[in-house]
Amino acid sequence: xxxxxxxxxxxxxxxxxxxxxxxxxxxxxxxxxxxxxxxxxxxxxxxxxxxxxxxxxxxxxxxxxxxxxxxxxxxxxxxxxxxxxxxxxxxxxxxxxxxxxxxxxxxxxxxxxxxxxxxxxxxxxxxxxxxxxxxxxxxxxxxxxxxxxxxxxxxxxxxxxxxxxxxxxxxxxxxxxxxxxxxxxxxxxxxxxxxxxxxxxxxxxxxxxxxxxxxxxxxxxxxxxxxxxxxxxxxxxxxxxxxxxxxxxxxxxxxxxxxxxxxxxxxxxxxxxxxxxxxxxxxxxxxxxxxxxxxxxxxxxxxxxxxxxxxxxxxxxxxxxxxxxxxxxxxxxxxxxxxxxxxxxxxxxxxxxxxxxxxxxxxxxxxxxxx
Length: 371
What we know:
Layout: H1 12-25, H2 31-42, H3 52-55, H4 63-76, H5 80-93, H6 99-106, H7 113-121, H8 127-136, H9 143-153, H10 178-187, H11 199-205, H12 208-213, H13 219-232, H14 248-259, H15 266-280, H16 295-307, H17 312-319, H18 327-337, H19 345-362
């Protein structure tokens, strides 16, 4: 769901916060005045995303003055609302010397990530620091940094799921950032469960389908394409799925061409297994894509054949014994459906996963015995 302020519509809570800031900005910015401002903001809701009401302050006050207040609120304001108000000001006025302060605020996670990422995004050459933050963050905390990197990779990207087909926070006059493109093609989706929030944007903005189409595409790019594809087949409720992307079929076809030339790994096996199962499932996401007749069956057959090859079968066995979350039982279920494992394999994997979970809970500090 898109936050109101992200559509360009000012919210009532932002207008109230802007009024508090306006009142203090009209007077001298003494230490006492700044402390009183932080106190005033304590009981005022401040949005955690860019909002026109707060952005409008830039047109009424010098950037240096807003930057001074923003820095003080982020560094010394203390409370959640004071820090958010400071980040909202820096999101419009930040300069390169603000990077350490913004980085520290971003690492505090929700609810500061969106505005901190925005303040960093507006700086010259911000991709490296945003990529660092994305590498350090986990879960949903990664989302604002990936969204910012996507806007940098292609500020004019056509994103049909946005009203008007564009991200309203993207600057269409900014040139595409090759550093953002390179990072997204290799590192966008991690092992977490929330890649669906930015997988579709990454495919479009970083032109992942074109990257994988290149016969010289490196293994990092091919593996990331596999992670993006398997994420997109199961991210309904987080973002657009594979069936909704016009790049979906070419990306999947090129991936199938490239992955067969690589040595088997557990991660590659995870991608191939997930995609083969979806392609073979009459109710899978790819069944809704409207692709030409026979395409899904042909791709499913190719990927299934790969899983039966020497080396790949051994990696599949490792995958079905994975201690990570529910990966093993879910993979075992897919393997059963594809005829790669006999009935009952998924139940056995689920029982083993439960036993490992109980063992961790019974061990001191949740550690495996001997760990």
